[in-house]
Specification:
Arc Repressor Mutant, subunit A, Tetracycline Repressor, domain 2, 2 domains
Length: 220
């Protein structure tokens, strides 16, 4: 995908034009992240792929981290669409709901990686305004997830369901790096004595999330 260096790109003034530019930048970033690690993504290479200048990218996203925050929001929304399709239509067994949550997340490794790096990487080098915009959209998405949970899990009220969505993010942030180890760690944990050090993300995530959910459901 390429944005040509032309006056129309630089002078985009309407909301629709700006949204098209932003979408093109996010599309290019998502493609680039299939080729390079997330921490190697840079605005210089991104702008080169788009066929424009770094300055033009900064017109729409103030920094590399700003691009990643927006991409995280977009990817999370796509995940919620997937999850809603996978969940039972009505009241369901808690384990079934948790498994769908874990499995659909595991199927989107880029989302998991970005989410796990939120506090330490993505929320740095961005303005308070950008962080506020990100967090407000995040809150909307988690409120939707909480609604999906309440409709299916008996005993969860609105506050508890929203709290569970926060717990889910914290568990993911801690668990994802351990489930994606370096080659040296993979070699080291091949030792049978270190079997417990090998982490299967969807299984471990479902186990931890299930414990948290049961604690909320059973709490007075």
């Amino acid at each position: 995908m390429s944005i040509k260096e032309e006056p129309g790109f630089r002078r985009a003034r309407s909301h629709e034009q700006r949204e098209l530019r932003r979408r093109a930048i996010l599309d290019a970033a998502e493609v680039l992240l299939t080729e390079v690690p997330l921490d190697a993504l840079g605005l210089r290479e991104l702008s080169r792929r788009l066929g424009t200048s770094k300055t033009n990218v900064v017109r729409y996203f103030e920094s590399r981290e700003g691009v990643l925050l927006a991409l995280l929001n977009r990817t999370r929304l796509m995940w919620l669409d997937d999850l809603e399709k996978e969940l039972p239509a009505g009241p369901a067994d808690l384990d079934e709901v948790i498994r769908a949550w874990a499995d659909t997340l595991a199927a989107r490794p880029l989302l998991c990686q970005m989410w796990s790096m939120l506090a330490m990487v993505l929320e740095r080098n961005v303005s308070a305004e950008s962080v506020r915009a990100y967090k407000l959209e995040d809150l909307e998405h988690r409120a939707r997830l909480a609604r999906l949970l309440r409709e299916r899990v008996r005993g969860l009220d609105e506050r508890e369901a929203l709290h569970l969505t926060r717990v889910g993010v914290v568990i993911l942030a801690g668990l994802w790096p351990f489930s994606n180890p370096t080659p040296a760690i993979i070699e080291a944990t091949a030792d049978p004595r270190l079997a417990d050090a090998r982490v299967d993300f969807p299984r471990a995530y479902a186990d931890m999330l299930g414990l948290a959910a049961r604690g909320l459901v059973g709490r007075p």
